[in-house]
Write a structure and sequence with these properties.
Blueprint lengths: L1 H13 L20 H14 L6 H11 L17 E3 L9 E2 L2 H11 L1 H11 L1 H11 L4 H31 L3 H28 L8 H13 L7 H11 L4 H35 L2 H28 L2 H21 L1
Helix pairs in contact: 1-2, 1-3, 2-3, 2-12, 3-4, 3-8, 4-11, 5-11, 5-12, 6-7, 7-9, 7-11, 8-10, 8-13, 9-10, 10-11, 11-12
């Protein structure tokens, strides 16, 4: 656990010097995202996306310590304000381009790397789902239906509450609370699973009804710091799935959920992100995320099958305590 904690938090702490936000020159990015920042964010995304410790929470922390969460409007080569949404009759003040807007979009778009990792590792299941859609694979069609049933609740709620969540829940304090609450749920779920397995060891398969429970649990993960992976794995536990099946269904559901989120965020703010950061380090972050996510997906299945969720719950508590002390000392 010490190694995992160090890998995720210390790079951001060691590189927490505030980067200079420079005035853009013609044709150049409006602000600098260094190679180091891109690699750190890619590692954090790849490591945390499928482990039950919250990628969004870790990325909020990372962007904070990398000083990428500033709301100062960026300016062009002649000192003019750069706009994400120009002033209009409906929005007289407009929405200027900021480092925070670009960084928030960046942390979602580089999920494409994690998506690619799942596509590579679980291409057989994805191909089966595609064949099921075409009516050529009954088992694949059943799995596809289950994934879609689990996807819809969080997708609908996230679409409706997206702006409110970003305005009210994206904070270090919110992440601390969610990390601790999630740890408590994980301890309970692990104890519940072990007790149930002892009483009824027969494995069960995912069904649309069980998927609906997992989908409802995924809605809770809209609170940053909770962890989509954690909630869907715990949801699998509560429906009777064993750790391997819970994790693998979580990965397939994540493939659909993250694809939708990345496309939505990319269409909404991707142009602004590229204007601020340029293409190079966006691609670098996604590649780093893909490599680290692939490693962590294999690790998680192996670990859950043998040891369960307790390690990750203790990590969450340690991270929350460290963040609380760091934030308190910083005031």
């Amino acid at each position: 656990m010490r190694l995992l904690f160090s890998a995720l938090l210390l790079p951001a702490l060691l590189t927490a010097a505030t980067p200079a936000v420079k005035t853009a020159t013609a044709g150049a990015p409006a602000a600098e995202l260094s190679v180091t920042d891109a690699v750190i964010l890619g590692v954090v995304e790849g490591v945390t996306e499928f482990l039950p410790i919250s990628s969004t929470g870790h990325l909020i922390v990372a962007t904070h310590f990398l000083s990428l969460d500033r709301d100062t409007p960026l300016t062009g080569p002649n000192g003019e304000t750069l706009w994400h949404k120009k002033p209009s009759a409906r929005n007289p003040q407009g929405e200027p381009l900021t480092l925070k807007l670009a960084a928030d979009t960046y942390t979602v778009v580089i999920q494409a790397g994690a998506i690619a990792a799942v596509a590579l590792l679980y291409w057989n299941s994805l191909l089966s789902m595609l064949k099921g859609l075409l009516g050529r694979d009954p088992a694949g069609r059943k799995l596809l239906v289950s994934v879609l049933v689990a996807f819809v609740p969080a997708a609908g709620l996230g679409f409706l509450a997206h702006s409110w969540i970003e305005a009210h829940l994206f904070s270090i304090g919110g992440v601390i609370f969610a990390q601790v609450a999630g740890a408590g749920l994980m301890f309970y779920a692990e104890a519940w699973r072990r007790k149930r397995a002892a009483a009824n060891p027969e494995p069960v398969e995912i069904t649309p009804a069980r998927a609906a429970v997992v989908g409802a649990m995924q809605c809770v993960a809209l609170w940053p710091g909770t962890s989509r992976s954690m909630m869907t794995i715990v949801g699998g536990y509560f429906t009777g799935l064993d750790p391997r099946r819970s994790a693998e269904f979580s990965f397939l559901l994540g493939f659909v959920t993250l694809t939708a989120a990345s496309v939505y965020k990319g269409l909404r703010s991707g142009g602004a992100m590229i204007e601020v950061f340029g293409w190079g380090n966006v691609i670098l972050g996604a590649i780093v995320a893909a490599v680290t996510a692939a490693v962590c997906v294999r690790f998680l299945v192996h670990w859950l099958t043998r040891h369960g969720l307790a390690l990750f719950a203790w990590y969450r508590i340690a991270l929350a305590a460290t963040l609380a002390v760091t934030v308190w000392l910083g005031k």
